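Now read these lines:
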Amino acid sequence: MTVHALLLRRETRVPGLLATASLSSACFGAAIGSYTGRWQIVSDAVKMPLYLLGTLALSFAAMHVFAARDRVARETFGAALETVALTALVLGALAPIVWLLSVSLPHAPGLRTAEAQRGYKILILLLTGSVAAAGVTGVVRLHQRLRSARLTVAWVLIYQFVGAQMAWLLKPWVSHTGLDDRFLPLRDNLKGNFYESVYRTFIGLFS
C-alpha cells in the first residue's frame, strides 16, 4: 500500500504517489471549504491538489537544473513527488480537525459580526499552521532523499517561489460569501501577483 510504504520510507511508484497526493490534499481542501459550505467545498477540494501538483509541474525543470549533475530526471521527479505526497498525506490527516473547527466557527457573509471576524482569523491561522506543519514534514523527507543541504534549500526556495504565485492565482481559499468569491475565471487573479501584493501591503504600513 502506497501510504504504508510512504510512511516507512520504502520504494513507492509514481501512480500511487499521485493518487495519495491528490486524494489527501482534496480532503484537506474540502475541510477548509466547509467553513463556507456549498460549492466552496468542491472548489477547494479541486484547488488543493491542483496547487500542490501544479506547483511541482511548473517548478520541476528548475529543480532538476540544480540536481542534474548527480541525478537523472526520473530520480529527481521521484524525490520531489514523494515530498509532495508526504506533505499532502499530513494535510489529509489534519483534515478531520480542520473540518470540525470549520463547521463550528461562527460565520457570517461578509464577516459582518465581530464573532465572524474572529472565527475567520482562527481558521486562517489553522490553515497556515497546518500547511506549515505538513511542509516541515515534507522538507525533512526531502533532505533525507537528497542528502544535500544545498539541493534541499534550492528546491524549497524554488517550490515556495512558484507556489506563492500559484496560491495567488487560485484564491480565494477561504470564502467570505460563498457567492461572489471564486477563482474562475482567472482574469481577475491575473491582475498583479503575490509579490506585488506583499510589496504594496508593506509600503502601506508606512504610508
